[in-house]
Design goal:
Strand content: under 5%
Structural class: mainly alpha
Order of helices and strands: HHHHHHHHHHHHHH
Distance between the termini: 26 Å
Number of helices: 14
Radius of gyration: 21 Å
Helix content: over 70%
């Protein structure tokens, strides 16, 4: 694969354009949804939180069977239908007025999103060679961040206007973005079903204990996901003398770094051995980031800003390394004929991390302070080191029809 910021022409570039389309809509949705549901729809904040939690809990469960559907019925058709379903779910928010319809719409939205993620991973696996997948995923991650940044800007305009029409416009843009995504996915070559419809697919991913261990360890590593959106803002407000604008600056730094360097960070990851090394290295870097973040407490404002900036740089380096390693592991350790099902299961780690992460981070950082930062870093390092033996065990059970994995050191 070319090592540029733009994927090569063909299926890889189309996948990136589809990612860009729906990430723009998602970015606008993320920054406006909470205020839309509370100020425009009139739901209580607690009801909004409960409804979204229920929705993502359902989505995390549904992702596996929808991924299995992509394996059995064809990844492209399944991805197109789920992209359209996501757009319809977003559009349904425009007519929601009560709590129960809101919960139903949230379940539909989260289920379609989870299934779409699994189906697109299966589609990617069918169109891109094993040696190019991690590099392409790095491109897609950079594209995702770019789209989220543009979408957040559009959402910011709606927030500035503060009118019902502006909010409805944002949700309409999000719905249309998934329609565009579906049309782009239709331009891709069809991928034959990996599991013939009359053939049983075996016990399923839920009984694959080695892969389940890999998924759990990755979920632990993903607990840092709410760090920039929740953990660090609360830390800055409660424990440091740094000005509030630092929160926005650190978010821009993280987004820009991923856009610029994620592809470069993924270049050295090409097999199980290099993937586990990348994850292990990211654990040490994350431990260092946590220690530096902790130094910002009690310091003068500008010393705190300096410590927070250095910590944010270390954190994003750790994030990019862990992402590249986990992508490689998730594909290489999945049976070739059940990539969609396995990716649907692996993707539940994101949902669990987003659900538990806020509680974990607020307890560790806001309530415990410096010891909490150090514990977070130590847990991350422990999970990153455990990934090595877990990967060796999982590699030993991969079926013989899968490409022989690189020896894990």
């Amino acid at each position: 694969m070319r090592h540029s910021l733009v994927p090569p022409a063909g299926p890889q570039r189309v996948l990136a354009l589809a990612q860009l389309s729906n990430s723009v809509g998602d970015g606008a949705y993320y920054v406006t949804s909470a205020l839309y549901f509370t100020h425009v729809v009139g739901l209580a904040p607690a009801h909004v939180g409960l409804g979204l939690t229920v929705g993502w809990a359902v989505g995390s469960v549904v992702g596996v069977p929808l991924g299995r559907l992509a394996d059995r019925r064809g990844a492209r058709g399944t991805a197109v239908l789920l992209a359209l379903a996501t757009g319809l779910a977003v559009a349904s928010f425009l007519v929601v007025r009560d709590f129960v319809p809101f919960v139903l719409a949230a379940c539909a939205y989260a289920s379609a999103q989870s299934g779409l993620a699994a189906a697109r991973q299966a589609l990617l696996a069918g169109l891109v060679s094993a040696g190019e997948r991690t590099g392409l995923l790095a491109h897609l991650q950079a594209t995702l961040n770019a789209g989220l940044a543009v979408g957040a800007g559009l959402g910011g305009l709606a927030l500035h206007a503060g009118t019902r029409a502006a909010y409805l416009g944002v949700f309409a843009v999000d719905a249309v973005s998934f329609l565009v995504c579906a049309l782009l996915l239709l331009r891709l070559p069809a991928v034959a079903p990996r599991v013939p419809s009359g053939k049983r697919s075996g016990a399923g991913v839920l009984r694959d204990r080695p892969y389940a261990v890999i998924t759990v360890l990755n979920t632990v590593l993903l607990l840092r996901m709410p760090l920039l959106s929740l953990g660090i803002p609360l830390w800055i407000a409660e424990r440091t003398a740094a000005p509030a604008w630092v929160v926005s600056a650190l978010f821009v730094l993280n987004t820009g770094a991923v856009m610029a360097f994620q592809v470069r960070m993924a270049r050295g990851v090409s097999g199980l051995a290099s993937a586990t090394r990348a994850v292990r290295r990211s654990g040490w870097i994350m431990l260092a980031a946590c220690a530096v973040f902790a130094l910002s407490a009690g310091a003068s404002p500008w010393v705190a800003v300096g410590a927070l900036t250095v910590g944010a740089v270390l954190q994003v380096v750790a994030e990019m390394g862990q992402s590249a390693g986990s992508w490689q592991l998730s594909f290489d350790l999945a049976p070739a004929e059940r990539v969609g099902e396995y990716q649907g299961f692996f993707g539940t780690g994101v949902t669990v991390a987003r659900t538990l992460g806020p509680l974990v981070l607020t307890t560790l950082l806001v309530e415990w302070g410096t010891p909490g930062w150090l514990l977070l870093g130590a847990v991350t390092l422990g999970a990153s080191y455990a990934m090595g033996p877990a990967t060796r065990r999982a590699a030993g059970r991969v079926t013989t029809d899968v490409r022989q994995p690189e020896l894990v050191h």
